[in-house]
Structure prediction request, 385 residues.
Amino acid sequence: MRVMLLGSGELGRELTLSFQRLGVEVTAVDRYAGAPAHGVADEALVVKMTDPDELSAVIARVRPACVVANTTAVAVDALRAAADGGVTEVVPGLLAAQLSLDREGMRRLAADELGLPTAPFWFAGSEAELEAIATHAGFPLVVKPVTGAPGQGQSVLLRHDDVTPAWQRAIAAGGRVAHNRVLAETVVEIDFAVTLLTARTYGPDGAALHFCEPIGHRQVGGELEAWQPQPMTEAALGAAKSVAARIVTALDGRGVFGVELLIRGDEVYFADVTAHPCDSGLVTLRSQRLSQFDLHARAILGLPVDTIMISPGAAEVWYSGAVVNGDLLLASALAVPESDVRLFGRHEDSSRIRLGMVLATAPDVTTARDRVRTASNALERLRQS
Prediction:
């Protein structure tokens, strides 16, 4: 069996390995040569994935059993044509692929059609419209591009002078996918944010949902810290699973969905969802029996899954600074109990680049987070050299 993976970055590399461990051949596709997954895939192709004709042609030539959309920078029309024509199957699904590229469509599905609780939001198609929204809604106000990875191109507006730079930052974040609309939403007072990884599978009894333990996370500058499990009240966890179940079921398809939620006490607000493995889910490489990549591969292939957490864990992912050789500093970081360090090579990608990460496990999540910080601090000079 052969699958075609669209999007071959560091997350694509891990997903490729998960497929290969199950005996699947992988054609890894990206817009530039030498993408991380290219180095481990059975076949590596350089394709402008946002070009419908170019993408359709390569799908027709390879004719994979399924095409796995692992990026938002993809021509959905080409995927739809291939699926409708019986050339291949698209996973996690056409609607999920389409709305992953369209934060406006995703938010309207969640709030307007499903009635999920969200922060008050508006959409703007110009800087003037964003200025009018800010005048109406007041401050603080969060502004996000309608497409792109969670957190990318995001700004918090505190005054009217922030409107112009926030608009420009959000529009520029589109990168390979041009857009001229932004999402603006009021800042909801919360206790924490979580990612609820939700695997949707198909079996003899139909579709089933499998929830991982909630993953807490926070973004600080050029670093993302994530930990599992995030403690929650029983009521909040139940509400979180209900929200995740409704949005994932509406998106249909199969695979792993990263549902982003905001938590305040027992209240849960929907924020976003990715239809593929996500950065905060990297902690599952150590914390779960099956990582988010293993779960995604198994769900796509129709194989049994489980979401067993084997140990509390934490991770820190870096997006800035420089990574160079430094054996002594690396040894200091790896001397931290139950720690692991992964340094990524640089590659040609205009989006924010993952440079490396630290992982750690422990008997409890507080100790795991402390161990990650200790190992990361040991690498600070290495990263800034």
Observations:
- Confidence is low (pLDDT under 50) at residues 322-326.
